[in-house]
Structure formats: structure tokens, C-alpha cells
Amino acid sequence: MAWTRFGKKKDMPGGLWEKCESCGTMIFRKDFPKARICPECGHHFSLDLMSRLKLTVDEGSFEEYWAEMETIDRLGFADRIPYSEKIERTVKKTGRKEAVLTGTCRIGGIETAIGIMDFSFLGGSMGVVVGEKIARLVDMAHDKKLPLVIFCASGGARMHEGALSLMQMAKTCASLERYQKNGGFYVSVLTNPTTGGVTASFATVADVILAEPGALIGFAGPRVIKTTLKQDLPKGFQRAEFLIEKGQVDRIVPRDAMRKELARLLAYGVRRDPLAAMALVAGEESKAKAGAEAGEGDA
Q1: What count of other Cβ atoms lies within 10 Å of the Cβ of residue 246?
Q2: Is the pLDDT of residue 3 over 60?
Q3: Which residue in 205, 202, 55, 219 sits closest to 130, CA to CA?
């Protein structure tokens, strides 16, 4: 009796595809847009800090400030593992010392003070170092008369630092009040998620508040509110689309259009020609696209 011999099944490498949690589309990672937006439904996937920086600022214009600042466990806090050990592990995993990147850049040719929060670093929580870096960024924008942009992504104040973390809410808002009273122009961009003490402080006191599509924005999370109130919440509660109807945000801007929108707003804020700023962004984007297509052709 003849037996059919089947070849050994080849092992396929993992991580080649990513599934959209909104529409279920399977997306080949190599074909994923740089902005990490689902090509079928527009769902915005999570985006790492450095990718967001590259999408936002003019090429080669970013200069980081206060990169050396790092967290100290002042309270000796410990739950399952000591806070100091948790920080050490997170620094090793992310390659960054804290949950916010701060510095200066150009957006559409306009010099700007910029802060970008990193949700992968302990949920983007705000402790002493995050609050201090944000306050210093605002003060620098005030002294140099620069417009200010902050991308927010946070679970709120960092419980491991107790009242010291809560104090950062007042400190950042005090710096912003001085900055805005003296003519500063501040744009806040709320990404998914922006919650807790960050929402209740510097994230929502901007001159213009933008949000990415589908971003969760609130103080306490919807599950906590539902459990406390013991009633169902409205459809889409705390999402950007719900909040724009209530006047909480000024505009919802897709991630791949954010840089051009920021260039336009910043130009208005510093009394420059918005069309010129947007044209500069469009020119750089066209150049980058042409370069990418040329690279594909060579391949």
C-alpha cells in the first residue's frame, strides 16, 4: 500500500500582519501607512513616540531639552514590586527616562516648543519629572516667545508618587496661565487615551484643543463611571466624536493631516502666512512620498 508523503509544514514568521480592532481588516505590516491608520475604516492604531515626532515636525528640526531628567523614588513606594524597580524596567524597555519628550522644532517652518507624551512609559502617567518638564517647556516658550504644542496621552497622575504627582497639575497650569496671559499661543492635541489628572490640567486649558479620531478623553474611565452611577452611558461616551458635540474639543483631525493643521494654526497664532506654512509641509510630504516611491522602484 502506497503512502502519500507530505512535506514538513513551513513555519511562518510571526508579526507579519496586524488586525484592525475596529473593522477586522488584516493589514500586512510592510504596507502599513506610517501614520498607522487603517486603510479600510480609518481606525487610528497606537503610535510610538518617535514615529509621532517624525510625522509632526519639519525634518531635522527637533532639538531635545532636559533629556537627562530621571525619576527618583522619594516615597519608597512598593506594591507587587518596588516603584524604583518598575521605573528601571520601564526605562530599559522603552529606552527613555520618562513619559514625555520635550524640546523645540519647526512645524511648517515655524519655530515651536513641543511636548509629546509616551503612553508606553507607565501609561503616560504624570509624576514629578513629567510635570517639571512640561512646566519648563511652557516657561521656555514664554521666555523665547514661541508657540506651544503638546501631544497628550496619559492615564493620569502617577499614584506611586502620591501628592507630589497631584501637585504637578497646579504647577503646569500656573506656568500656562503666565504664558497665555502674556500672549502665548498653545495648541493641545488629545490622543488615545487622555484621562485623569492630565485631562484635568494642562491638556484642556489650551487656546485650541485638537483630538485624534476615536480618542478616549475624560477624567475617570467609562467603566468606573458606569459602576458608580449604576446606569448605562450614552453611545460613544468620552470619545472625541462625542466630546466635539459638547464643545469640549475644537476639532477632530486625522493623524495624517495633523502636521498641516498645526502649521496652519501656528501661523495664525504667530501672525504668519498660514498658506505659506501649509505649502512648506505639503512640499516636504510630496518630496518624501516621491523618495519612497523611487526606493520601491529600485527594489
Answers
A1: 7
A2: no
A3: 202
- Distance between CA atoms of 13 and 16, rounded to whole angstroms? 7
Question: Is residue 120 situated within a structural domain?
Answer: yes
Range of the domain at 137: 47-284
Q: Does residue 30 belong to any structural domain of this protein? A: no
CB 210 within 8 A of CB 260: no
Q: Cβ neighbours of residue 180 under 8 Å, at least 6 residues apart?
A: 186, 205, 207
Residue carrying C-alpha cell 503666565? 178
Report CA-CA distances (Å) from 200 to 61, 127, 155, 156, 213.
Answer: 31, 14, 11, 9, 20
Whole-number average pLDDT of the chain? 92
d(CA 56, CA 115): 11
What pTM value is reported for the model?
0.89
Q: How many domains does the chain have?
A: 1
Give the cell for residue 42.
480609518
- Nearest 5°: the CA angle 186, 97, 121 is 75
Count CA within 13 A, CB hemisphere, residue 92: 6
111 three-state secondary structure: strand
**Residue 93: pLDDT over 70:** yes
95-127 confidence digits (pLDDT tens) = 999 999 999 999 999 999 999 999 999 999 999
The label of the residue with cell 521656555 reads 140
Would 16 be classed as within a structural domain?
no
Which residue type, as a one-letter code, is found at position 155? G
- CA 133/CA 129 separation, integer angstroms: 6
From the centroid of its chain, how far is CA 10? 39
Does an H or E element contain 284, and which? helix 274-298
d(CA 271, CA 9): 64
